[in-house]
Specification:
- It is a single chain.
- This protein is α+β, with helices and mostly antiparallel strands.
- The protein has three domains: about 45 residues, Uridine Diphospho-n-acetylenolpyruvylglucosamine Reductase, domain 2; about 120 residues, 2-Layer Sandwich (Uridine Diphospho-n-acetylenolpyruvylglucosamine Reductase, domain 3); about 100 residues, Enolase-like, domain 1, CATH 3.30.390.50.
- About 35% of the residues lie in helices and about 25% in strands.
- The chain is built from twelve helices and 14 strands.
- The strands form four sheets. A five-stranded antiparallel beta sheet has the order 4-5-10-6-7. It has a four-stranded antiparallel beta sheet with strand order 11-12-13-14, with helices on both faces.
- The protein starts with 6 loop residues before the first strand and ends in a 6-residue tail after the last helix.
- Bound molecules: flavin-adenine dinucleotide.
């Protein structure tokens, strides 16, 4: 299907992007990889009169260590997330999530910033940044602010970004020694959006879990932090008994939608099974 007509403008700087956005008085969208904007326009789900290409803005590019965090530029494409050695070392949940995102053709264009700004509830990266306790760097005409991933995802396709603000980077705190990770999802076919997914990290000291951070996706309108499940893990070894307690705690954390084709109880059961699978296979970065 042909796209509705629109004006295409390329911004060379953040200031230019905000100015072009403000001129359009709400009738503009930013364009990064275009792999959600363009299909949604083709399907007539949206018809902005202006697309502002932000893919050439320098501040959105690059993956660098900055003090105690890894800064990942918003324009980092999914395929780069998959291949980048700094991400593999310091933000391994993203490297593990990336192969599950769509297919190579989409991963070659789609960007982590576009993916997080879209906030699809079935998407892998939002759950990964939540589990990693990352901060999202957001820049607008009024300056820059950092938003914790816990506060970024507000509702279905709704984030804490205000009109015209640009998500410029993701800051992942560097992991301590002894951290183990797990990520998996259940999808009807490889590359499809998940029916349910789990991202998990845990710090293990002297064989006991001192801290755990778990999130699930495709279980609600946003990715969900599994607070009760985290508590069930803390202070215990990662043993079959502990894992069973964590699986039981999921019922406190989740209130999945009750879809006639996918009842809530079935989704909860899939989540329990997947959580058990992920916790049984937690491993450190090699
Ligand atoms: C067939 C198909 C299958 C897919 N499967 C999956 C999947 O399994 N899992 C998954 O997670 N995704 C999937 N996707 C989505 C894909 O990962 C997209 O690339 C991603 O969701 C959006 O990234 P993008 O760079 O293409 O963003 P765009 O399409 O360019 O933008 C998406 C939205 O974010 C806004 N935006 C973009 N960048 C910024 C920024 N830096 N700051 C503020 N706002 C911004 C745009 O204005 C727009 O509203 C799939 C897409 C397709 C077409």
């Amino acid at each position: 299907m042909k796209l509705p007509s629109f004006e295409y403008l390329r911004a060379r700087s953040l200031a230019e992007a905000w100015a072009l956005h403000s001129e359009a008085e709400g009738d503009a969208v930013y364009l990064s990889g275009g792999h959600s904007v363009v299909p949604s326009m083709a399907l007539r789900l949206q018809a902005p009169s202006r697309l502002i290409d932000i893919s050439h803005i320098a501040e959105l590019h690059g993956v660098d260590l900055q003090g105690e965090t890894l800064r990942i530029g918003a324009m980092t494409r999914h395929s780069e997330v998959l291949a980048n050695p700094l991400i593999a070392r310091h933000a391994p949940l993203l490297s593990r999530a990336a192969p599950h995102v769509a297919h190579p053709a989409i991963r070659n264009r789609g960007t982590i910033g576009g993916n997080l700004a879209l906030a699809d509830p079935a998407s892998e990266f939002p759950a990964a940044v939540l589990a990693m306790r990352a901060d999202l760097e957001v820049t607008g005409p009024d300056g820059q602010r950092m938003i914790s991933a816990d506060d970024f995802f507000i509702d279905l396709y709704e984030t804490a970004l205000t009109l015209g603000e640009v998500l410029t980077a993701i800051h992942v705190p560097l992991p301590p020694e002894g951290r183990v990770y797990g990520f998996d999802e259940i999808a009807r076919r490889r590359g499809d959006y998940a029916m349910v997914g789990v991202a998990a990290q845990a710090d293990v000291q002297d064989g006991v879990i001192s801290e755990a951070s778990i999130s699930l996706f495709s279980v609600s309108v946003t990715p969900v932090r599994a607070a009760a499940t985290q508590e069930a893990l803390k202070g215990s070894p990662l043993s079959p008994d502990t894992i069973a307690r964590a699986q039981a705690a999921l019922a406190t954390d989740l209130d999945p939608p009750d879809d006639p084709g996918f009842p809530a109880e079935r989704r909860l059961q899939l989540a329990r099974v997947l959580l058990g699978r992920v916790l049984n296979r937690m491993e450190a970065v090699q």
